[in-house]
Design brief:
The complex is a heterodimer of chains A (337) and B (343).
Chain A (H helix, E strand, L loop, with lengths): L1 H11 L2 H19 L6 H26 L7 H17 L5 H25 L4 H20 L9 H7 L11 H18 L1 H11 L1 H6 L4 H27 L10 H11 L11 H20 L4 H33 L10
Helix pairs in contact in A: 1-14, 2-13, 3-8, 3-9, 3-11, 3-12, 3-13, 4-5, 4-6, 4-11, 5-6, 5-11, 7-11, 8-9, 12-13, 12-14
Chain B lengths: L9 H35 L6 H26 L7 H18 L5 H25 L4 H20 L11 H8 L1 E2 L2 E2 H19 L1 H11 L1 H6 L4 H27 L11 H10 L11 H20 L7 H33 L1
Antiparallel strand pairs in B: 1-2
Helix pairs in contact in B: 1-12, 1-13, 2-7, 2-10, 2-11, 2-12, 3-4, 3-5, 3-10, 4-5, 4-10, 6-10, 7-8, 8-10, 11-12, 11-13, 12-13
Classes of the chains: A mainly alpha (337), B mainly alpha (343).
GO molecular function (chain A): transmembrane transporter activity
InterPro entries (chain A): ABC_transp_permease
Protein name (chain A): Autoinducer 2 import system permease protein LsrD
Chain lengths: 337, 343
Amino acid sequence: MAERIAPVRRVLGSWDVIVLLAVVAVATVGAFTIEGVASPRFWRFVALEALPIALIALPMTLVVITGEIDLSVASVLGLTCTVMGQLWVSGVTSLPLLIALCLLLGAVLGAVNGLFVTGFGLPSLAVTIGTLALYRGLAYVVLGDRAVANYPREWTSSAIAPIPGTTIPWMILVLAALAVVFAVVLHATPVGRALYAMGNNAEAARFAGVNVRLTKFWLFVATGTMSALAGVFWTLRFASARADNGSGLELAVVAAVLLGGVSIFGGRGALLGVLAAVALLGVLRNALQLAYVPANTLTVITGALLIASVVGPNVAGMLRERLRRRRSTAPTATPTT
Amino acid sequence: MTLVDSPPAEAATQGTRVARRAFLVRELGIGLALVLLIAVTYAVNPRFLSAQNIKDLLLGSTILAILAVGQAVVVITRNVDLSAGSVLGLSAFATGAVFVAAPGLPIPLMLVIGTALGAVLGAVNGGLIAAAKVPALVVTLGTLYMFRGLDYTWATSRQINAADMPPAFLRMGTETVLGVPVLALFAVAVLVAVGYYLRHYRGGRELYAIGSDPAAARLSGIPGGRRVFAAFVASGALAGLAGVLHAARFGTIDANAGLGIELNVVAAVVVGGVAIFGGSGSVYGAALGAVLLTTIRAALPVLGVNPFWQDAAVGALILASIGLDRALSARVGRSLREGKAHG
């Protein structure tokens, strides 16, 4: 696999831009052909729908770049929702306190993942499939099949309130601020370089003085915390805490991260591409819904996009390699396959 | 693990023997856990082992076990097949649709059609993974969506009811032979056949070699791409077969059959002691894992545990299993190294 990465990277260097252009193209074509896509209301819905996925995709990008994965995010979201509901029912009426407790819970749940992965050295795929079941199960233990829906009107309306003068929810600003933080950490600090390094070769990163375990541990904590934040938003947006909130969302997040050009083997990818992919999936979904395209077609498109996003660059890279080998006459420094 | 039986490995074989014993211990361990669980539950409520309940347990395990066997074959090669649930869904709906169109179709032919459909879908996965060299997790996550989307498109919120299917086919879903459900016999047959192949055939051993070290496998001349392709075809075929059995068992099929089951299947495989990074474990373990997961879900309510604890218990079991595997493999690694040091 490694020998193929070099030519692939040249194609992928612009992958973020390709995805971003795809968003613009879909939005433009949609605006001219589908009634309603050009309306401000449309973008409000896209933003509201994409927000939880984007919030979780930020830390997930970093996790996948280090070569790990966290499949428990949607269950953390669900458990946070139920705990928030239960706390509200049992008399915690201060919203800041509720949010703080929920974020703390998310951090703890993430720390449990991190402990299993880095402390005991277990594969994150297996660990987080375990905690996916465990956390979702605990969500059912907390609320059973009940729903808590009687939140104060001002909470639920302020969660989805628009930026004054627009229709865009103000939470987008929170997302943007967090995205800047994650982007700076990933792309402009030694920590960020270390994440790529451990994704490419954890052993080498350790020899280079990177504390691989500790860094990964904190990444899982961050993922748990962000999933909890998404859970708080989810609860208030739908004014409903239920144990099955957001179930299956983990695959949507992973799909967006991978479509955004992050390699599942780690070591490659960028935040811009991931956010563009979240936007692409969101715009596509809502635009096609407005065009009365059945939801199942959309499911097929999501899958096809995902496959195309990995098959395309790989096949292009292979073709390029073949061309290059045919052209090169001297068998000198060509890397053997 | 024991591809080579050449002489220089006298000390190593001792290590290998330890390794083999450890993995045997691993499977015995699940078996023991299962027996313990059943014994405790039986002590609390003897009706847990009534003929009817045993039949329900076996029926409940059948589909998950068949999927787990297919998944184990793929996981052993250091890959994963997340599309199994969607393949099952498509095959189950296809079963209903075919019976609606041709009510007189012989049942064995239907089993062949479902299995073949699954094999074709598995070939799509395997082809993309082996030919385009893309990661299985990404491809099968993509086909999870695509196959399910096709299923929805085909079904268009229709539902196929028991009345649309031949009575003999539905009888197969509930019939028993000497108290054992016919469907469970399918699972046993699949298990024995795949288990025998993996243990005693060159192709089967090579799957382990690919999973434990892909680069070394390639250097020793194993056709990795072809073997991985075949593993995905097998996984798809078994999911297809499971789809037909699903139709026979439940009688009512819509586009949601097997929705979200893929992570349960991976969980069963992991609980069964198949290492998620390939190269070790057995299909017997995976099948036992499936039975254990099903039994836990059935036993908790009998034990007076709030049924809402089911998922949490399953999650805890998965974590415990991979922790145990880690401890075991650390021990095996030590004894293998020591064996080498002596030799």
